[in-house]
Amino acid sequence: MTDLRFAVIGAGFWAPFQIGGWREVKGAKCVAICDRTIAKAEKVAQDLSIPAVYENAEELLGREKLDFLDVITDGSTHCELVHMAARHRLPVICQKPMANTLADAENMVRVCREAGVPFFIHENWRWQSQIREVKKVLDSGEIGVPFRARIFLVSGFPVFTTEPSLMELEEYILKDLGTHLLDVGRFLFGEADSLYCQTDQIHKDIKGEDVATVMMRMGGRTTVTCYMGFPGNFLEKDVFTQTLIFVEGGKGSAELDRDYWVRVTTESGTRAKRYPPTYRPWMLPTYIASHASIARCNAHLLQALRGEGQAETTGEDNLKTMRLTFAAYESARTGSAIRFCKGAAAETQRRG
User: Fold this and answer.
1) pLDDT of res. 282
2) Per-residue confidence at 352, pLDDT binned at 50, 70, 90?
3) DSSP classification of residue 174
């Protein structure tokens, strides 16, 4: 099997982990890295033995023979770079959030569709093995029809020390962490029928919101509440970056608890099994819950790039998550609930 050649644009905090994830996957080879700050690209290239370095994306695409492009920059440049890939008829994978505005996200999907270019989003959260186990339980019908669920990731981890650029974002938690959790909600329960959101800012030295609570009616049957935030409070048992999930159904309950335990309770009793992530040297131990899903997501997208299956997190699919994200901002801003005409794929209507 011939390796697919790809380049990475973006040499910031996430790049070494994304490239590390690719190196766990057979059939793909990173041949170049590009960053507007050339010194950052040179450092990553040296550390990871990447042969070519660029500071201009157009120059990269003009010189390198590539099979796909992996965009790992901040959200402000995603639209420009995806449009560039479409002009070059080059399949492209983009980090979340897809774009900083809903209009940009819609245009990115449109130009790739019109150019016939595969467009995927690196939405790795749903690829965590413990979350996919919860999905299996729900799909089996063992706990009956889910009527209520909680998705929770609140932590005192000092994210602004690890990633200080997050402090400058005018819109933070919903775009950064929220896109993951809202996508998990869609993955587990289906599209949203309605949404209501409240946000807050606990850290006063940042620009955006660092806490959000989103309540949705999903799949026409399940009330789902997403709790997200890095308020800096001291929790007895911090879960960063673990996502906790509790689902109530007509026949029982399913829980993803701390330390990757999945518990299923029905009238027959409770069974429990742990699904811990596998550590690799390129991962940060504090980020292991999310880092361990990168390679699994990459392997899935590589199959789609080879025409060996359909990708879950296409641009078209992730546009539904982006519509939820921006609807949450509208709800928080206006104090109104949002109703979706035909699930999250449709235009929204405001209601009091």
Assistant:
1) 96
2) very low
3) I
